[in-house]
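We emphasize that the prediction below concerns an isolated chain of 237 residues; any contacts that depend on oligomerization or on bound cofactors are therefore not represented. The input was used exactly as deposited, without trimming of termini.
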Amino acid sequence: MPDGPVSSLMSTLFRERLASLHAGEPQLGVDGTRHQIDATTRISPVEGLALVQLVAQVAATRTLEVGLGYGFSTAYLLAALDNRQQPDAVSHVAIDPFQFSDWNGIGVTTAMDLVATSPWLSDSSFQCIHERSDIALAGLLKEGRVFDLTFIDGFHRFDDVLVDFTLAAQMCPMGGVIVLHDMWLPGIASIAGFVRSNRSDFTEVQTGCENLFAVQRVGEDVRTWDHFEPFATEFGE
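Result of the prediction step, given as a token string:
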């Protein structure tokens, strides 16, 4: 874990757990045993700390992520909420239909352990929805949920992520932030191009991480029914 003003926003509890995750140490699963973790399925410390900084910048108390996996980004987001020191006033929702089938429940186990140990988080601070993101997001939208920061890092096909963004945008309050991960993928970079050209209700926020694309809601979506602007993709116009 790199040191600095952002990492200082996290308590020792979260720093130690994240150090273990980034070191690739076997992690406790829902079955009570430790499992090896895939070295490629994670966000980097720099990206995680950028999320922590964004939570602080927008004073977020309600966060959402698509893609739980081993719980790397979850731990960073819970650390940011823990730093708010507002028991029962913060919440994080993670969506992952494959948490038990593909990840041995490591992400859920990590999150629940952190919540149980933190003095500033409660049982209501974390929820995992075991459904496809389109179904889960539509359900949250129907419930009238609002999220100050949404991190999208699930299925990485262009159309799936565009649906995730479109639904998340409807639950993003004024000043809220949506973040996409894996800008090295042409599909994700193309969605960033679409948002830049077609969603004037959002403005790009610099994170200092080339692999993250973050936008902040600054207005209403006033596009006409047939609106479309050509947008740059990974392959050009």
